[in-house]
Automatic annotation (TrEMBL):
Membrane topology reported for the UniProt record: Multi-pass membrane protein
Transmembrane segments: 26-48, 60-79, 99-120, 140-164, 197-225, 237-260, 272-292
A single GO cellular-component term on record: plasma membrane
Keywords: Cell membrane, G-protein coupled receptor, Membrane, Olfaction, Receptor, Sensory transduction, Transducer, Transmembrane, Transmembrane helix
Subcellular locations according to the entry: Cell membrane
Protein's name in the database: Olfactory receptor
Gene that this sequence comes from: LOC112641349
Short name of any one Pfam family annotated for the protein: 7tm_4
Cross-referenced Gene3D superfamilies: Rhodopsin 7-helix transmembrane proteins
Family (UniProt): Belongs to the G-protein coupled receptor 1 family.
Domain G-protein coupled receptors family 1 profile: from-to ranges: 41-290
Amino acid sequence: MTEDNYSLTTEFILIGFTDHPKLKTVLFVVFLTIYLVTMVGNLGLVALILMERRLHTPMYIFLGNLALMDSCCACAITPKMLENFFSKDRMISLYECMAQFYFLCLAETADCFLLAAMAYDRYVAICSPLQYHTLMSKKLCLQMTAGAYIAGNLHSMIHIVFLFRLTFCRSHQINHFFCDVLPLFKLSCVDPYINELLIFIFSGSVQVFSIIIVIISYLCILFMIFKMKSKEGRGKALSTCASHFLSVSMFYGSLLFVYVRPNSVKEEDKDIPVAIFYTLVIPLLNPFIYSLRNKEVINAMKRNIKKIL
């Protein structure tokens, strides 16, 4: 090998979506709109939950933290992506790369545990309504929320620490719109087998553990719903869970496809549309999924809008 082939790479080029000038402008406007709506929707939901005392319940505490993590996910990815639409070099340093992945991994891991906590909360509310305030105390709610953040930080740090064992001396082009670890592994001149194994083990464990909690919670909920004699009671219970189940299905499905399927490193081209879905589309949709069908949130919005006006 020549000396150039051994030179280590500390900066990368994010290939992004396209080099076509007109298409770049259209995509920039689309993704900027998505970003602004995502931030307004999620941070607005966080602010509403903080201001409205009636929403200071476990379900809305989990929902507010989910919205906060969705904002974190959008902030980690979108600003750099928008900048690169009109940047000549589209460069990102290795440390910027690590920071971007750290906050993305933190947000996605915390989301997994928050969604599981929300499923358990719905199970208690529907299956044991008389014991709800005992089983879902504010102390337990705060412990579960703190646990989600701690798990997110630990999971991120494990992968960041093991990234330091890699050196990059191949191509410096990342075939993605953000700095994900899977495309990075392909550029390593050190065998990334350990890193790939850690991604599979830890990401798989986080997702499988939280999915099991969600599935068990919803099976119990469905069993309880089928036992209800009142049609009105069934409809109310199903309506309460429908938005959460929709969000869970989209989120876990996309993450499992990207990080846990076999040969995920080799088939990175297939990941880009799915990555758009779980990093940009789901954070955009979540505040609308949870608020538009929720009378308590809508009424709280109306009350606060009247106070402002």
